[in-house]
Amino acid sequence: MLNDLLVAFQAVATIENFLIMAAGIWGGVIIGAIPGMTGTMAVTLALPFTFYMQPIPSILLLVALYKGSTYGGSVSAILIKTPGTASAACTTLDGYPLAQQGKAGKALNMALYSSCTGDFISNLSLIFIAAPLALLALRIGPPEYFMLMIFALTTVAGVSGRSLLLGLVSACLGLLLATVGEDMYGSFRFDLTVDMQSGLAVAPVLIGLFAIPELLKIIVFRNNQSHKPMQLGDNRVTRDELRRSLKAMLKGSMIGVVMGAIPGIGPSAAAFSSYGEAQRSSKNRENFGKGELEGIAASESANNGCCGSTMIPLLALGVPGDVITGVMLGAFMIHGMTPGPMLFENNLNEVYMLFIGMLFSSILLFGAGKATMRFFSHISRIPPGLMAPIVLALCLFGIFSISNSMYDVIVLLVMGVFGFFMFLFAIPAAPFLIAFILGPMLEENLRRSLALSRGDPSILVSSPITWLFASLAIFVVVVTIRQQLKKAKA
Amino acid sequence: MGITRGLVITALFGIVLFLLIPAYVPRPRFIPGFAPPPDMWPRTVSMLGMALGILLVGLSFSRKTEAIADPENASAIRGDTPLATLLTRFGWTILAFALFIGSVMLLGFLLSSILLLMAMLLLTGYWRHKVVAAAVAVALPLVLYLFFSSALNTRFPVGSLFRAIGI
């Protein structure tokens, strides 16, 4: 294997490949940082260009765009509280408070270090444990999926606000909204208008929920403070801060690797689960949500930790875990390669070249992140009174361009107003979002499980894996209630 | 605050459970195999939401458990600003959003965005810096319009008014 990897190294280490990957990373960072433009959009737009390229450079371009956009999402999440991608929503919880304290550079640096660490560990895991992880993922059926998502939801509900109850209310609202549109058997639900039959897209809901309430807050609770630009101030992550965050970073990377390897779970759930675990085990858990670097390290390492491992089910089983890997599956097939167990027999050289290229892209991500940081940091100097309308314009044009439809723009604005009311009632937005994303899968797997068991709910606790996730969910609930009661007594 | 919030949440889920689901989630006459009906999941979630709302109301009565249900004092965000002022600002913003949605088909996406941006800059109080604000309100939508139209081939609504005068 080592020999094959060395041969692949020589084949990949060309100027042409580096330029392609660098372009992909830079493009991805910029696209990810623009609210409304997602990694999926970047990969889809680049797909036609790959028709004219060699197989491996074309896949590397798509992977680079994916990685760049995953990191880029954190830039706008930290600076303007508008996550460029759903997986960066968790980063806003601590990133934006840090930016408000004049530590935008520090937050961006920590996001970059964590993203690169998560990405690198994910790539290594792809190389060395692709096969066993793919086998484990294969054993996860509908009941296991359901329990895994229940665990992810309880974690998010428990950590993203100050009250578990309000977190659960938020999750219920998200689950309910996710039922709008066509269900798995073709029935239409809550189709108050014809447009609503297609359901609600993630991008307008995500951006509406996080970006528009900020604008409303500035307008409604207007005060002199809001016109003061944020200072760049303290930019460097000290060695002590890095050491303190290392545990969260490594744990987050592993959570990202495992959750990324399971088709459909994705980086958003991984980021929130990692955040929850970091908060639970941190000595500074009181600072989470107020500007804690460990929180950024946990979420960013986990979401980038998924980048490599989402390729595991794609390469090993031929199963795309999300839309982006679905597009990549298309790119593989365009170039005559069929992902799946036979790929390792028929195209072993190409697979190793891809592995090496992905390792290089982690280093390029670091370079691109550092180079763009200075430029992006200046955004935080724009006064909020000017910045919020600018963000609104970016959101309007970005969201309209996704499907050329005013319906998405209306969803964006309505969700913004809804998000503002959630803020007034101190209901956290993060569980809502994650429940909205996982909701369709959660319901589908519940209904599939019940159909399999002829309506017997005991199927949900019928295997060791379901027991494991159910126990973890109960553990999270008990620990959160205990912590909140302790706080209430204090 | 805790009681009001609990009641609002209970009412919201109640409306979904008792009014919206019966009206907008049709139950098919025949469901193949043992698959649960389409209203099973929304009903379950709504019932759970209602239960949580009632729990929030209940916990708000006891000072000991209030902290779990009501972690922060929301009135602190409001400060000394009179409620009428806050409501007026909120009302203007909603009106601006509604006018934007309504005007897109008439004035087109670009002009409506410029007008909305001007309204937002006025409402955030940044309009004091007239030159910068006006430049941003006009230039930013124009740049975004050109970028998305040329790079992504997005077809923004031109507006019936402009179409009528041949632009």
UniProtKB/TrEMBL annotation, chain A:
It comes from the Bacteria. InterPro entries: DUF112_TM. Keywords: Membrane, Transmembrane, Transmembrane helix. The chain crosses the membrane at residues 6-33, 45-66, 120-138, 145-178, 198-220, 253-275, 323-344, 351-369, 381-402, 409-439, 459-481. Residues 19-433 form the DUF112 domain. This is C4-dicarboxylate ABC transporter permease. The lineage of its organism: Bacteria, Pseudomonadati, Pseudomonadota, Gammaproteobacteria, Oceanospirillales.
TrEMBL record, chain B:
Residues 7-157 form the DUF1468 domain. The keyword rRNA processing does not apply. The chain crosses the membrane at residues 7-25, 45-62, 131-152. Keywords: Membrane, Transmembrane, Transmembrane helix. The keyword Oxidoreductase does not apply. Pfam families: TctB (PF07331). It comes from the Bacteria. InterPro entries: DUF1468. This is DUF1468 domain-containing protein. It comes from Vreelandella nigrificans.
